[in-house]
Amino acid sequence: MAQPLKLYFIRHGIAEERQPHLPDQQRALTPKGRQKTQKVAQRLQILGINFEYLQTSPLVRARQTAEILQHQGLVKAIHVSDLLSPEGNWQDWLKWLQDWRTQGLTHLALVGHEPHLSTWAEILVWGQPCQQLVLKKAGMIGLLLPEHHNPIGQSTLFWLTAPKLLL
Predict the structure, then answer these.
(1) Sign of the dihedral through C-alpha 166, 48, 152, 111
(2) Is the pTM value of this prediction over 0.90?
(3) What is the rounded CA–CA span in Å between residue 139 and residue 164?
């Protein structure tokens, strides 16, 4: 039987504004975004939060956020996945999660984008998207997924913090 899973949804930090000459995939964190994300990572480390596995969107701003978390010592390795890109598919990710859970790991972090992350969290907690959760840039949602393999509508929200409360 699988162990309960702590799943953390982490939105990328503040990124460059959209510009006609800059593809969305290449938008990087701003200096303020890097600084804020670094402070959040430091606070998470102080609170004793760490991840056994971190999956990130391939977009630059998400990978940079994941690298900051790794540099702070919250995770050893980063795993890039198209499932967390803005075009990512919920059902495909859920299948990945079911396969991943067979490893017996219990602390998973996802670094990605809105509205995917909060929508996925809502489906896990309430069974459907409710447009009630707001995940700010460099913010985090924490869910406890049940031991069985069907977490939809059965997960528990245990963390929802705006980044400013961690600074």
Answers:
(1) positive
(2) yes
(3) 9
